[in-house]
Amino acid sequence: MKKVYVNEERCLGCHLCEYYCAFANGSEPEFYKAFRLGRNAVPRIKVEDGNGINFAVQCRHCDDPQCMKNCIAGAISKVDGVVKIDRDKCVGCYTCVLSCPYGCVVADGGHSASKCELCTANGGTPQCVKGCINGAIVFEERGETA
Questions:
Q1: Which residues in the chain are classed under CATH 3.30.70.20?
Q2: Coil/strand/helix, residue 127
Q3: How far apart, in whole angstroms, are the C-alpha atoms of residue 49 and residue 46?
């Protein structure tokens, strides 16, 4: 299965991936409006900066997802290898946020949690990958499992 991977040596820490992700998963039709006037655009990828090393953290779509195991509402499922949250079922307890060992499930500012779903609802090519001008983020298949 294709997943998002990061080459830390190429990551500049510019956070463009966060902007593209938040826009792709938001409701605002114009990019600049999504981040103006205090709108709450929440990225599903997060750039960590520290000691000269930058890297983006996103859902690993684990083989045995702890977020799914611990979801009390049964709102998290795995479809074709992609771990997804059904926002209509989510009760906002955020047990999944606490359960993710990678910190990839986040509170979305509303009543539910959110996470990277590989832009399956947005055309299938992750927008963080498209928006990374340095090629630090790739969407490819590797032999690894999480």
A1: 61-115
A2: helix
A3: 10
CATH architecture of 1-58+125-139: 2-Layer Sandwich (3.30)
The partner residues of 141 in beta bridges, in order of sequence, read: 2
pTM: 0.85
CB 114 within 8 A of CB 42: yes
The one-letter amino acid code at 53 reads I
Tens digits of pLDDT across the chain (146 residues): 899 999 989 999 999 999 999 899 888 888 888 877 666 678 899 998 878 788 888 999 999 999 999 999 999 999 999 999 999 999 999 999 999 999 999 988 778 999 999 999 888 889 999 999 999 999 999 876 55
Tokens of 101: 């060992």
The set of residues, in sequence order, having a beta carbon less than 8 Å from that of 64 and lying 6+ positions away, is: none
Six-digit token string for 16: 């463009």
Task: Return d(Cα 80, Cα 122) in angstroms, integer.
Answer: 16
Asked if 146 contacts 62 with a C-beta cutoff of 8 angstroms, the reply is: yes
